[in-house]
Amino acid sequence: MGVSEFLLLDGTPLRTVDPALLKATSFGHFSSLQVRDGRVDGLDLHYDRLDKSTRDVFRTPLPADRVRTELRAALEHAGAGDLSLRVQVFADTEVHLLTRVGPPIAPGTEPLRLLAVEHERAVPHLKHSGTFDLIYYGRQAQHAGYDDALFHSTAGEISEASIWNICFARGARIVFPSAPVLPGIRQQLLQRGLESFDVERVTDVSAYDAAYLTNSIDPALPVASITVGAKTITYGKHPESAERIAAAYATESAQPI
User: Which top-level group of life is the source organism from (predicted)?
Assistant: First the structure.
């Protein structure tokens, strides 16, 4: 008699998870959302990301209405309007949406100390399921006494942090790295709200007055320092850029699911 697929967790059979589901979700893409009172910052950008990525990876569109239906189902099942959601897209013979629901996550309050490491993400324009390298380098930085890793190319060009985009400030000017990165939703929102900004090749982090990390949780988390090799660049509070970033975000309203 043949053996059917099954899973063991620490030696105990795990009957509630389909092994096929685990295999399917190893190849796909996702978007993470923070929901407050049933609303999401940049929801239209999340829909656009999920559609474009599905077209890229699976050669088929993903209509916003279908994603909206899944998000509303998550709100209904949770019975709450404040949530963390992750919409994972994968496919076998058809495209599926797997929505992970959790409690809301508050933004960070303490500036982070970053360790610059040489690394370039595979297929950086996609928020894909292959996050091993991001977690690995982030943990390596933590083991070395830092808060997270900041990536740079072999040529020393700064790109992004493990789960954040990064931007820099020169006076009131906001500067985004020109290196290939994942175009984060918060980064797109910030750029949409700014009247003007710079995009340039960032190699010398000492050339800037401040740096900020952005992702779905943290709109603009200040960077305390960046260590590149034996040199550490520190940043203090910089009200001029902080106020400009806050004003840019204020031009956008959260959108109802």
Answer: Bacteria
Helical (H) or strand (E) element with 133: helix 132-143
CATH classification at residue 150: 3.20.10.10
Those residues whose C-beta lies under 8 Å from the C-beta of residue 243, and which sit 6 or more positions away, are none
- Is residue 90 included in any domain, yes or no? yes
**Closest of 243, 245, 104, 236 to residue 166, by C-alpha:** 245
pLDDT tens digit sequence for 119-146: 999 999 999 998 999 999 999 999 999 9
Name which of 138, 142, 183, 143 is nearest 161 in CA terms. 138
Residues 146 and 72 in one domain: no
Q: Indicate whether this model's pTM tops 0.70.
A: yes
Which residues, 6 or more positions from 115, have their beta carbon under 8 angstroms from its beta carbon?
Answer: 141, 144, 146, 148, 149, 150, 226, 227
Indicate whether 173 and 246 sit together in one domain.
yes
| Distance (Å, whole) CA 131 – CA 219 | 21
What's residue 1's pLDDT? 61
List strand residue ranges (DSSP E) for the chain, in order: 7-9, 12-14, 29-36, 39-40, 83-91, 95-102, 112-118, 148-152, 158-161, 165-170, 173-177, 198-200, 210-214, 221-228, 231-234, 255-256
What secondary structure letter does DSSP report for 213?
E
Nearest to 241 by CA among 206, 211, 198: 211
As a whole number of angstroms, the distance between CA 74 and CA 155 comes to 44
Range of the domain at 187: 112-250
Residue type, 220: A
Chain Cα centroid distance, residue 150: 14
The neighbour count for residue 119, using CB atoms within 10 Å, is: 18
Distance of CA 185 to the CA centre of its chain: 8
Residue type for position 193: G
Q: For residues 126 and 29, is the Cβ–Cβ distance under 8 A?
A: yes
